[in-house]
Amino acid sequence: MVAGKINALRQNNDLRRLTLLIGVALALFGVALIVVVAYAGWSANRTAVIRERQLVENALDNRVSRVLDEQKSIAWWDDAITNLTRGRVNTQWADVEYGAFLSETYHHSEVFVLNDHDAPVYAYIGGARVDAAAAYDLVRPVIAKVVAEARGAAPTLRSRARAFEAGRSRYREQLGGINPRWSGHILSVQGRPAVVSVMSIVPNVTPSLLHGEPYLLVSVVRIDDAFMRELGDGLLLPDLRLVAAGRDTGALTFEPFSADDGASLGYLQWTTKQPGKTLLLFILPLVALGVLLAGMLTAVMIRRLKRASNALATREAQARHDSLHDPLCGLPNRRQFTAQLQEELDALVVTRNSRRVVVACIDIDRFKDVNDTMGHHAGDMLVKAVADRLKPCLGPTDVLARFGSDEFAVLRTAANAQESIALTDMLQRTLSRDFEVMGQTVAVTASIGVAEAPEHGFSSDELMRAADIALYQAKSQGRARSMVFCAEMAAEVEQRREIEVQLRAAIENDALDLYYQPLISCADGSIRSAEALLRWRHPERGDIAPSVFVPIAEEAGLMPALGAWVIERAFADSARWPDLEIAVNLSPVQFRHVDLSETLHRLARKHRLEPSRILFEVTEGVLLESTERNRSILDTIRAMGFRVALDDFGTGYSSLRYLADFRFDKIKIDRAFVTSINERNRAMTIIKAVVTLGRGLGMDIVAEGVETEAEAAAMRMLGVTQLQGFYFSRPVPANEVAGVLEAFARATHGEARAPSQIRAG
Ligand code: C2E
Ligand code: CA
Ligand code: CA
After folding, report:
1. Considering only CA atoms, which residue is closest to atom 37 of ligand 1?
2. Ligand 1 within 6 A of 513 CB?
3. What is the pLDDT of residues 529-556, one digit of tens each?
4. Are 372 and 363 in contact (CB under 8 A)?
5. Which residues 6+ apart lie within 8 Å of 260 measured at CB?
6. What share of the chain is helix, strand, coil (3-state, %, to 5)?
7. Model's pTM, two decimal places?
8. Which of 585, 614, 646, 702 maximizes ligand 1 atoms within 8 Å of its Cβ, making it the mutation to test the pocket?
């Protein structure tokens, strides 16, 4: 029980640990999955933004290269040298070929020409030539940086126009060795972003035209909305803008944008492609939901598992308890009892003290009758009542167990022999008080068999066997008593067992015989009746008396078969002596079988037998046990025409009440009375009373076991009607009966005297 609980607890702990492990693992896995997906989405977006940003930068770079390219188409030109750098600027030519061309064809918003000393000599702004000096003054501080770079100063600005730069050696070749100079940048011009591009004006066909430092062509291309739109279209970012201020909101990205000298130009703004959007917007919530669902599912499953395992543990404990306990009383069963007994015995061996372990096997006498007459429910209630009464009478260390229908056992560790006697006394006393079962008072006695360790054995098997034998002995000695095991009992029981086995075989092999003993009529000395008596000639033991093997047959459950055999045989034999009444002994056990009257009916028909020729002898026990039932069976038997005798009168309760209660046809006074007739007056008085009562009721009175002439005479004098005993004849085999009858017929003439030859046989 305790072990079962501990086991269940341990199991629960294991489960709790496992559950926690699964829970934590799942939670970690779930969180990791969410983080990974979120990071993948975010990083895809971030990478896209960086890439888009890079593309924008590249496009701007290319745009600067393009402006340089546009400039190049008119700056590297022999005509430009002649029209611009020969002392006086040919303004008409410059308007057409430079100002108008660049602003109209390429949308350069401001066009300047600087001379070899970087002084402005020409300016074209807003579709018209303007005063070069004044106009240039407005933008000089910014443009001067680019001009300086174009003149060969160390670069201070972020480098641009790599695409254009790549063609440097090719240009030099084209220009016949002249090394053209340029510089292009993105800068804040008058507070607004613009591409500022400076290109040296050199001859393209005749290098010799160039003398000294070249003039410079300066272009300003405003980075306005149109500029950005064109840029964006090329990059598939249609909403690319340059804005003064902004903030990242969802798909709209703001990236700070600075001029090549580091000054802030505001922000680049565009809608990014956001390739991670699907991940973040759809997959991430799905994953989160999945993780949540999986978590919930696991939680439910774990809870179910836990509940199932709890139920299992409980059921297991229950099953273990059930397997060790009796379902009716909840007492330990035989298995549990023997286990505990073994534990006690082991302790006894270990401690080697003077204690003893006592086992008392208790059997409720005639419990079967309660079951048979009052029903199984009443039987169960009686068993429970017995258990309930015994429990409080036992000590806290005593063990009370129930083995079977009406079998109990007590285990007690006693200090001395007195204690074990006190135990059996207490048990007998406790059970001798009446029980109340279903409103009826039931008187109970108990047979108790006791065995003790170490005297009677050291193992639970030995001890249980010894207690069983003692119980068996107590029962066979008339029940309602306690017996302590002793070695002779074992031998006796062993012998009984052996006889039981052999008797079983004898019944099957028809190795039994029926003898007949005549009853002599006192009136005329004739034989009117004979009693059938069982004989068993054992191949090794010789003749075994029925007083030995009949009780064994009764205990072993062989009586129904044996009894039926006797009845059948007696019925068959009776046909040989048509004038004789045949007496057949019936065991009380035969009454417990419902089919007794049915058997008699069947056999009488089979042997075409007149029932009145058969007399059944029963003992008081039949009337004592299960009164109602047995009595009604007796009634049935009589109603069928059979006769009934009360056998062994005077041995048991000898209550005259039975004679009055039930109509017997014959009373057989036991041999004990016949033998003691000379010594005891009391016997004489009783026989007289029985004879008077019996004759008054019209019964035959038989004296059994008449061995001497004196006894025969005394019985005759007392008024007995029939005599039976060795004095007249011993029981003889069936084929000798005719001889006995003949001898009697010859020897007697109205007198009940035994013929001498028969007496001798
Ligand atoms: P019981 O029914 O009282 O049978 C009479 C017994 O007394 C017989 O013993 C018989 O041999 C014996 N007897 C007869 N005359 C004398 C005598 O002058 N002196 C002495 N000492 N004994 C005498 P048996 O045959 O040994 O049977 C013993 C008992 O066994 C019977 O007692 C009866 O109770 C039982 N028994 C015998 N045959 C059967 C049977 O077929 N069925 C049943 N149920 N019981 C039987
Ligand atoms: Ca008899
Ligand atoms: Ca008898």
Report:
1. 533
2. no
3. 999 999 998 888 889 999 989 988 988 8
4. no
5. 157, 158, 160, 185, 186, 187
6. 55, 20, 25
7. 0.54
8. 585
